[in-house]
Amino acid sequence: MSGKHDSASARAAETLRQRILDGVYAPGDRMPSATVIGNEFNIDRGTAARVLAQLRSDGFIITKPRSGSYVRTFEPNLRSFPMRLEVWKEGRAVQGADSGKQTRLIDLTVGETPAGRAVADAFRIEPGSPMIRRARRFSMEDRPVQLADSYYLPEMVRATAIVYTDTGPGGVYARLAEIGHAPARFTERLRARMPLPAETEALELPGGTPVIAITRVAYDGEDRCVEVTEMVLDASAYELEYHATI
Fold first, then answer.
1. How far from chain centre, in Å, is Cα 234?
2. Which of these CATH numbers, 1.10.10.10, 3.30.930.10, 3.40.50.1370, 1.10.510.10, describes 2-71?
């Protein structure tokens, strides 16, 4: 009996999920109530409520108190690399190069921290060596979508505005250029994974939502590492686009 019940529940979840993907339930549409879902799929109301909870956990719907469940209207933001890095030469923030809905900085802290293994390897220093870290959190449509921690050698940037929250016109890359270390090339490595508990909290992620972890390393004209940035992106909020010339 339980197996038959579970099968009906799984069929209900899959059917509703496919209807959302096919546009039968469009972004912003109100979803059928648990009672309606129960009647359609011959399951009890409690099971139908758990089907809605699963769709919510998977990121397909949101629930508004005393209103009901609705198909999410959030559109992914296109992040294009390496084109987005060209904007710093124009004195604009790198985040402003993304298309679609623009990100907004909601948290920023600057301080000294010991280098982790990946950061130390990029800078060719010992793990635990002191680094200047700029830690940011970004949102779109009032929803946290990205964490970004950037690391710099203290002896390189301590006399610049990089150690302050306001780096001035052109941002960090303009300040690096002023001291003779303008970024000349970049590398990015990325992988998909499940978020750490702190990341889930900071990005307010529904259960089961993966993240995209990106490590970007910037090198100056002498091929010296001048910045390492470790980013964590809500995978449901971004589309990544990469360009290459042969």
1. 3
2. 1.10.10.10
Rounded to two decimals, the pTM is 0.74
Would you say 65 and 36 are in contact if contact means Cβ atoms under 8 Å apart?
Answer: no
Nearest residue to 234 (alpha-carbon basis) of 99, 102, 95, 137: 137
Phi, psi (degrees; rounded to nearest 5) at 220: -85, -175
User: In whole angstroms, what is the distance from residue 152 CA to residue 226 CA?
Assistant: 6
The superfamily CATH assigns to domain 77-242 is Chorismate lyase-like (3.40.1410.10)
Q: What single-letter DSSP state applies at residue 224?
A: -
Please report, for the chain, the start and end positions of each structural domain, with discontinuous segments joined by +.
2-71, 77-242
Residue 118's alpha-carbon distances to 121, 130, 216, 226, 243, in angstroms, are 5, 14, 11, 14, 25
| Token code pair at residue 243 | 């360009």
**pLDDT tens, residue order, the chain (246 aa):** 455 557 888 999 999 999 988 889 998 899 999 999 999 999 999 999 999 998 887 778 888 888 889 997 766 788 887 766 666 566 666 665 555 556 788 999 999 999 999 999 999 999 999 999 999 999 887 789 999 999 999 999 999 999 999 999 989 999 999 999 999 999 999 999 999 999 999 998 877 789 999 999 999 999 999 999 999 999 988 888 888 777
- The answer to whether the 2-71 and 77-242 domains have the same CATH topology is no
